# Entry
Amino acid sequence: MTRRARLCVAALLCGFTGPLPAAAAGLTTPEPLAKAYELILDARFDEAEGQIKQACPPAPTPACEVVWAVAGYWRLLLDPENTSGDAALMTRIDGSIASGEAWVAREPARAEAWFYLGGAYGTRVLLRGHRSQYLAAARDGKRIHDALQQAIRLDKSIGDAYFGLGLYHYYAAIAPRAARILSALLLLPGGDRPGGLKEMEQTRSKGLLLRGEADYQLHLIYLWYERQPMTALRLIDGLRTRHPHNPVFHLSLAHVQSDYLRTHTAALQTYRGLFDAARASRIAAPAIAEVNARLGMAREMDVLCDTAGALDQLRAVIAQRPAAPYAALTRAHYQLGVALDRAGRRSEAVAAYQNALASIPRDDRLRIGEKARAAIRRAPAARACR
# Structure
Protein backbone atom coordinates (compact mmCIF):
# COMPACT_ATOMS: atom_id res chain seq x y z
CA MET A 1 0.00 0.00 0.00
CA THR A 2 1.36 3.43 -0.95
CA ARG A 3 2.06 6.19 1.58
CA ARG A 4 -0.90 8.12 0.19
CA ALA A 5 -3.20 5.13 0.62
CA ARG A 6 -1.91 4.53 4.15
CA LEU A 7 -2.68 8.11 5.12
CA CYS A 8 -6.06 7.85 3.43
CA VAL A 9 -6.89 4.81 5.56
CA ALA A 10 -5.61 6.59 8.65
CA ALA A 11 -7.81 9.60 7.98
CA LEU A 12 -10.80 7.40 7.25
CA LEU A 13 -10.42 5.61 10.54
CA CYS A 14 -9.55 8.74 12.46
CA GLY A 15 -12.27 11.16 11.46
CA PHE A 16 -10.82 13.93 13.62
CA THR A 17 -7.40 15.53 13.84
CA GLY A 18 -7.82 18.69 15.88
CA PRO A 19 -8.53 19.17 19.54
CA LEU A 20 -11.15 21.78 20.38
CA PRO A 21 -13.37 24.44 18.86
CA ALA A 22 -13.16 27.96 20.19
CA ALA A 23 -16.88 28.69 19.93
CA ALA A 24 -18.22 29.95 23.23
CA ALA A 25 -21.47 27.96 23.34
CA GLY A 26 -21.15 24.68 25.15
CA LEU A 27 -17.50 25.13 26.05
CA THR A 28 -15.80 26.27 29.22
CA THR A 29 -13.30 29.15 28.77
CA PRO A 30 -12.02 28.00 25.37
CA GLU A 31 -9.89 31.07 24.61
CA PRO A 32 -6.73 29.97 26.48
CA LEU A 33 -6.91 26.56 24.82
CA ALA A 34 -7.35 28.17 21.42
CA LYS A 35 -4.19 30.19 22.05
CA ALA A 36 -2.35 27.02 23.06
CA TYR A 37 -3.44 25.33 19.85
CA GLU A 38 -2.06 28.22 17.78
CA LEU A 39 1.26 27.83 19.57
CA ILE A 40 1.21 24.11 18.77
CA LEU A 41 0.67 24.81 15.07
CA ASP A 42 3.67 27.12 15.20
CA ALA A 43 5.71 24.32 16.87
CA ARG A 44 6.35 26.52 19.91
CA PHE A 45 5.80 23.62 22.24
CA ASP A 46 7.38 25.02 25.40
CA GLU A 47 5.17 28.11 25.20
CA ALA A 48 2.17 25.89 24.50
CA GLU A 49 2.95 23.88 27.61
CA GLY A 50 2.88 26.99 29.76
CA GLN A 51 -0.35 28.14 28.13
CA ILE A 52 -2.02 24.77 28.76
CA LYS A 53 -1.02 24.87 32.42
CA GLN A 54 -2.67 28.28 32.74
CA ALA A 55 -5.81 27.12 30.96
CA CYS A 56 -6.83 24.30 33.33
CA PRO A 57 -8.55 25.28 35.51
CA PRO A 58 -10.86 26.99 34.67
CA ALA A 59 -11.06 24.88 31.49
CA PRO A 60 -11.91 21.22 32.15
CA THR A 61 -8.92 18.97 32.80
CA PRO A 62 -9.88 16.47 30.02
CA ALA A 63 -9.80 19.33 27.52
CA CYS A 64 -6.21 20.18 28.44
CA GLU A 65 -5.24 16.52 28.27
CA VAL A 66 -6.48 16.36 24.68
CA VAL A 67 -4.46 19.45 23.79
CA TRP A 68 -1.40 17.86 25.43
CA ALA A 69 -1.88 14.80 23.24
CA VAL A 70 -2.29 16.87 20.07
CA ALA A 71 0.91 18.76 20.94
CA GLY A 72 2.71 15.45 21.21
CA TYR A 73 1.50 14.38 17.80
CA TRP A 74 2.58 17.63 16.12
CA ARG A 75 5.97 17.31 17.82
CA LEU A 76 6.25 13.81 16.32
CA LEU A 77 5.72 15.30 12.84
CA LEU A 78 9.04 17.14 13.13
CA ASP A 79 10.69 13.74 12.56
CA PRO A 80 7.73 11.58 11.53
CA GLU A 81 9.51 8.29 10.87
CA ASN A 82 11.26 8.28 14.26
CA THR A 83 9.32 5.87 16.49
CA SER A 84 11.36 6.36 19.69
CA GLY A 85 8.75 8.63 21.25
CA ASP A 86 5.70 6.57 20.29
CA ALA A 87 5.30 4.75 23.60
CA ALA A 88 5.33 7.93 25.68
CA LEU A 89 2.92 9.64 23.29
CA MET A 90 0.56 6.66 23.34
CA THR A 91 0.55 6.73 27.14
CA ARG A 92 -0.42 10.40 27.06
CA ILE A 93 -3.15 9.77 24.51
CA ASP A 94 -4.55 6.81 26.43
CA GLY A 95 -4.71 8.98 29.53
CA SER A 96 -6.73 11.62 27.66
CA ILE A 97 -9.13 8.92 26.45
CA ALA A 98 -9.60 7.58 29.97
CA SER A 99 -10.38 11.08 31.24
CA GLY A 100 -12.83 11.66 28.41
CA GLU A 101 -14.60 8.36 28.98
CA ALA A 102 -14.96 9.15 32.68
CA TRP A 103 -16.35 12.58 31.87
CA VAL A 104 -19.06 11.35 29.49
CA ALA A 105 -19.99 8.70 32.05
CA ARG A 106 -20.48 11.43 34.66
CA GLU A 107 -22.24 13.88 32.32
CA PRO A 108 -23.66 12.04 29.32
CA ALA A 109 -25.77 15.04 28.30
CA ARG A 110 -22.81 17.44 28.09
CA ALA A 111 -21.79 18.10 24.48
CA GLU A 112 -18.27 19.28 25.16
CA ALA A 113 -17.48 16.05 27.00
CA TRP A 114 -18.35 14.07 23.86
CA PHE A 115 -16.42 16.51 21.71
CA TYR A 116 -13.22 16.16 23.72
CA LEU A 117 -13.64 12.40 23.81
CA GLY A 118 -13.81 12.35 20.01
CA GLY A 119 -10.64 14.42 19.86
CA ALA A 120 -8.84 12.07 22.25
CA TYR A 121 -9.74 8.97 20.25
CA GLY A 122 -8.93 10.78 17.03
CA THR A 123 -5.39 11.52 18.13
CA ARG A 124 -4.82 7.87 19.01
CA VAL A 125 -6.17 6.70 15.66
CA LEU A 126 -4.03 9.26 13.87
CA LEU A 127 -0.89 7.89 15.52
CA ARG A 128 -1.87 4.27 14.88
CA GLY A 129 -2.74 5.01 11.28
CA HIS A 130 0.60 6.76 10.81
CA ARG A 131 2.29 3.58 12.01
CA SER A 132 0.12 1.35 9.76
CA GLN A 133 -1.68 -0.25 12.73
CA TYR A 134 -4.95 -0.27 10.84
CA LEU A 135 -6.92 -2.92 12.70
CA ALA A 136 -6.23 -1.30 16.06
CA ALA A 137 -7.13 2.06 14.56
CA ALA A 138 -10.35 0.71 13.08
CA ARG A 139 -11.55 -0.43 16.48
CA ASP A 140 -11.66 3.24 17.49
CA GLY A 141 -13.16 4.56 14.25
CA LYS A 142 -16.84 4.20 15.05
CA ARG A 143 -16.31 5.53 18.58
CA ILE A 144 -14.88 8.76 17.15
CA HIS A 145 -17.68 9.18 14.64
CA ASP A 146 -20.35 8.47 17.26
CA ALA A 147 -18.78 10.80 19.82
CA LEU A 148 -18.74 13.72 17.40
CA GLN A 149 -22.27 13.00 16.22
CA GLN A 150 -23.44 12.95 19.81
CA ALA A 151 -21.72 16.27 20.51
CA ILE A 152 -23.56 17.87 17.59
CA ARG A 153 -26.90 16.34 18.58
CA LEU A 154 -26.52 17.89 22.02
CA ASP A 155 -25.16 21.25 20.85
CA LYS A 156 -25.22 22.21 17.17
CA SER A 157 -23.25 25.37 17.95
CA ILE A 158 -20.06 23.30 18.26
CA GLY A 159 -19.51 23.89 14.57
CA ASP A 160 -15.88 22.81 14.44
CA ALA A 161 -17.03 19.25 15.10
CA TYR A 162 -18.22 19.19 11.49
CA PHE A 163 -14.59 19.25 10.40
CA GLY A 164 -13.93 15.86 11.97
CA LEU A 165 -17.12 14.41 10.56
CA GLY A 166 -16.38 15.89 7.15
CA LEU A 167 -12.91 14.40 7.14
CA TYR A 168 -14.38 11.02 7.99
CA HIS A 169 -17.16 11.22 5.41
CA TYR A 170 -14.78 12.30 2.64
CA TYR A 171 -12.18 9.60 3.20
CA ALA A 172 -14.80 6.92 3.74
CA ALA A 173 -16.08 7.70 0.23
CA ILE A 174 -12.70 7.63 -1.55
CA ALA A 175 -10.77 5.10 0.54
CA PRO A 176 -9.02 2.16 -1.15
CA ARG A 177 -11.01 -1.03 -1.53
CA ALA A 178 -9.15 -2.70 1.34
CA ALA A 179 -10.17 0.10 3.70
CA ARG A 180 -13.81 -0.09 2.58
CA ILE A 181 -13.90 -3.82 3.25
CA LEU A 182 -12.43 -3.22 6.69
CA SER A 183 -15.01 -0.52 7.36
CA ALA A 184 -17.85 -2.84 6.39
CA LEU A 185 -16.55 -5.63 8.59
CA LEU A 186 -16.34 -3.27 11.56
CA LEU A 187 -19.71 -1.63 10.78
CA LEU A 188 -18.23 1.84 10.33
CA PRO A 189 -20.52 4.55 8.86
CA GLY A 190 -20.39 5.12 5.10
CA GLY A 191 -18.92 8.03 3.21
CA ASP A 192 -20.07 11.11 1.31
CA ARG A 193 -17.37 12.77 -0.82
CA PRO A 194 -19.07 16.07 -1.71
CA GLY A 195 -20.81 16.29 1.65
CA GLY A 196 -17.61 15.65 3.55
CA LEU A 197 -15.72 18.28 1.56
CA LYS A 198 -18.51 20.78 2.20
CA GLU A 199 -18.38 20.08 5.95
CA MET A 200 -14.63 20.63 6.04
CA GLU A 201 -14.82 23.83 4.01
CA GLN A 202 -17.57 25.04 6.34
CA THR A 203 -15.24 24.67 9.30
CA ARG A 204 -12.42 26.36 7.41
CA SER A 205 -14.55 29.41 6.68
CA LYS A 206 -16.47 29.61 9.97
CA GLY A 207 -14.44 27.73 12.56
CA LEU A 208 -12.58 29.61 15.25
CA LEU A 209 -9.94 27.06 16.26
CA LEU A 210 -9.62 24.44 13.54
CA ARG A 211 -9.01 26.68 10.56
CA GLY A 212 -5.32 25.85 10.55
CA GLU A 213 -5.98 22.14 10.96
CA ALA A 214 -8.58 22.29 8.21
CA ASP A 215 -6.14 24.07 5.91
CA TYR A 216 -3.53 21.36 6.47
CA GLN A 217 -5.89 18.45 5.85
CA LEU A 218 -7.60 20.15 2.91
CA HIS A 219 -4.28 20.87 1.23
CA LEU A 220 -3.66 17.11 1.18
CA ILE A 221 -7.12 16.41 -0.17
CA TYR A 222 -6.85 19.01 -2.93
CA LEU A 223 -3.38 17.73 -3.76
CA TRP A 224 -4.06 14.00 -3.82
CA TYR A 225 -7.70 13.52 -4.73
CA GLU A 226 -9.28 16.71 -6.07
CA ARG A 227 -6.35 17.35 -8.44
CA GLN A 228 -6.14 21.03 -7.58
CA PRO A 229 -2.45 21.58 -6.75
CA MET A 230 -2.71 25.36 -6.92
CA THR A 231 -5.40 25.31 -4.24
CA ALA A 232 -3.18 23.05 -2.16
CA LEU A 233 -0.28 25.44 -2.70
CA ARG A 234 -2.33 28.41 -1.52
CA LEU A 235 -3.43 26.60 1.63
CA ILE A 236 -0.01 25.34 2.67
CA ASP A 237 1.72 28.62 1.84
CA GLY A 238 -0.82 30.36 4.05
CA LEU A 239 0.06 28.02 6.90
CA ARG A 240 3.77 28.66 6.41
CA THR A 241 3.16 32.41 6.49
CA ARG A 242 1.03 32.25 9.64
CA HIS A 243 3.21 29.69 11.41
CA PRO A 244 6.77 30.27 10.19
CA HIS A 245 8.34 28.51 13.18
CA ASN A 246 6.98 25.10 12.12
CA PRO A 247 9.25 23.35 9.57
CA VAL A 248 6.45 20.96 8.60
CA PHE A 249 4.77 23.70 6.59
CA HIS A 250 8.00 24.70 4.83
CA LEU A 251 8.67 21.10 3.80
CA SER A 252 5.06 20.58 2.70
CA LEU A 253 5.20 23.71 0.54
CA ALA A 254 8.42 22.57 -1.13
CA HIS A 255 6.84 19.16 -1.74
CA VAL A 256 3.91 20.72 -3.59
CA GLN A 257 6.19 22.99 -5.60
CA SER A 258 8.56 20.20 -6.60
CA ASP A 259 6.50 17.03 -6.99
CA TYR A 260 3.19 18.44 -8.22
CA LEU A 261 3.86 21.78 -9.90
CA ARG A 262 7.41 20.99 -11.06
CA THR A 263 8.50 24.51 -10.15
CA HIS A 264 11.92 23.36 -8.98
CA THR A 265 13.43 26.82 -8.73
CA ALA A 266 10.63 27.82 -6.35
CA ALA A 267 11.11 24.63 -4.33
CA LEU A 268 14.84 25.32 -4.09
CA GLN A 269 14.08 28.80 -2.78
CA THR A 270 11.71 27.34 -0.16
CA TYR A 271 14.37 24.92 1.03
CA ARG A 272 16.92 27.74 1.16
CA GLY A 273 14.52 29.76 3.29
CA LEU A 274 14.18 26.80 5.65
CA PHE A 275 17.96 26.41 5.76
CA ASP A 276 18.48 30.08 6.62
CA ALA A 277 15.82 29.91 9.33
CA ALA A 278 17.44 26.80 10.81
CA ARG A 279 20.92 28.34 10.86
CA ALA A 280 19.49 31.41 12.58
CA SER A 281 17.48 29.23 15.03
CA ARG A 282 14.25 30.87 13.89
CA ILE A 283 12.52 27.52 13.51
CA ALA A 284 11.66 24.51 15.67
CA ALA A 285 14.17 21.64 15.85
CA PRO A 286 16.76 23.64 13.89
CA ALA A 287 19.29 20.81 13.56
CA ILE A 288 16.70 18.51 11.98
CA ALA A 289 15.38 21.34 9.82
CA GLU A 290 18.88 22.12 8.54
CA VAL A 291 19.45 18.51 7.45
CA ASN A 292 16.05 18.32 5.76
CA ALA A 293 16.77 21.62 4.02
CA ARG A 294 20.15 20.42 2.75
CA LEU A 295 18.66 17.17 1.45
CA GLY A 296 15.87 19.12 -0.22
CA MET A 297 18.23 21.66 -1.77
CA ALA A 298 20.40 18.84 -3.09
CA ARG A 299 17.41 17.18 -4.71
CA GLU A 300 16.30 20.37 -6.46
CA MET A 301 19.85 21.27 -7.50
CA ASP A 302 20.23 17.82 -9.01
CA VAL A 303 17.04 18.25 -11.04
CA LEU A 304 18.24 21.70 -12.15
CA CYS A 305 21.59 20.21 -13.26
CA ASP A 306 23.61 21.94 -10.56
CA THR A 307 25.47 18.74 -9.77
CA ALA A 308 28.30 20.48 -7.95
CA GLY A 309 25.87 22.28 -5.66
CA ALA A 310 23.98 19.05 -4.95
CA LEU A 311 27.20 17.19 -4.09
CA ASP A 312 28.27 19.98 -1.73
CA GLN A 313 25.00 19.82 0.21
CA LEU A 314 25.01 16.03 0.45
CA ARG A 315 28.63 15.84 1.53
CA ALA A 316 27.91 18.43 4.22
CA VAL A 317 25.18 16.16 5.62
CA ILE A 318 27.44 13.11 5.45
CA ALA A 319 30.21 14.97 7.26
CA GLN A 320 27.78 15.80 10.08
CA ARG A 321 26.66 12.16 10.45
CA PRO A 322 23.37 13.41 11.95
CA ALA A 323 21.39 11.18 14.28
CA ALA A 324 18.18 12.90 13.16
CA PRO A 325 16.01 13.10 11.19
CA TYR A 326 15.35 9.44 10.63
CA ALA A 327 17.77 7.79 8.17
CA ALA A 328 19.33 11.16 7.27
CA LEU A 329 22.78 9.68 6.66
CA THR A 330 21.33 6.87 4.56
CA ARG A 331 19.28 9.31 2.51
CA ALA A 332 22.32 11.50 1.92
CA HIS A 333 24.45 8.58 0.71
CA TYR A 334 21.69 7.39 -1.61
CA GLN A 335 21.06 10.86 -3.07
CA LEU A 336 24.81 11.26 -3.50
CA GLY A 337 24.86 8.08 -5.56
CA VAL A 338 22.05 9.34 -7.78
CA ALA A 339 23.78 12.68 -8.34
CA LEU A 340 27.07 10.98 -9.15
CA ASP A 341 25.34 8.67 -11.60
CA ARG A 342 23.85 11.70 -13.32
CA ALA A 343 27.35 13.09 -13.68
CA GLY A 344 28.60 9.86 -15.25
CA ARG A 345 30.73 8.90 -12.25
CA ARG A 346 29.48 5.35 -11.96
CA SER A 347 32.13 3.81 -9.71
CA GLU A 348 31.75 6.62 -7.15
CA ALA A 349 27.98 6.28 -7.36
CA VAL A 350 28.13 2.55 -6.58
CA ALA A 351 30.33 3.29 -3.56
CA ALA A 352 27.74 5.80 -2.36
CA TYR A 353 24.93 3.26 -2.71
CA GLN A 354 27.00 0.74 -0.74
CA ASN A 355 27.51 3.33 1.99
CA ALA A 356 23.76 3.85 2.04
CA LEU A 357 23.22 0.12 2.55
CA ALA A 358 25.78 0.09 5.35
CA SER A 359 23.97 2.85 7.24
CA ILE A 360 20.33 1.75 6.85
CA PRO A 361 18.26 1.66 10.07
CA ARG A 362 17.05 -1.81 11.00
CA ASP A 363 13.43 -1.11 10.17
CA ASP A 364 14.23 0.79 6.91
CA ARG A 365 10.87 2.55 7.02
CA LEU A 366 11.71 4.52 3.88
CA ARG A 367 12.71 1.37 1.94
CA ILE A 368 15.97 2.93 0.82
CA GLY A 369 17.63 -0.49 0.78
CA GLU A 370 15.50 -1.61 -2.15
CA LYS A 371 16.33 1.55 -4.10
CA ALA A 372 20.07 1.34 -3.38
CA ARG A 373 20.32 -2.33 -4.38
CA ALA A 374 18.37 -1.63 -7.57
CA ALA A 375 20.69 1.29 -8.37
CA ILE A 376 23.76 -0.89 -7.87
CA ARG A 377 22.36 -3.44 -10.32
CA ARG A 378 21.43 -0.78 -12.85
CA ALA A 379 22.13 2.93 -12.94
CA PRO A 380 19.00 5.10 -12.59
CA ALA A 381 17.73 6.60 -15.83
CA ALA A 382 19.14 10.01 -16.61
CA ARG A 383 16.80 12.95 -16.04
CA ALA A 384 16.50 15.92 -18.35
CA CYS A 385 17.57 19.25 -16.92
CA ARG A 386 14.83 21.71 -15.99
Notes: The CA atoms of residues 10 and 172 lie 10 Å apart.
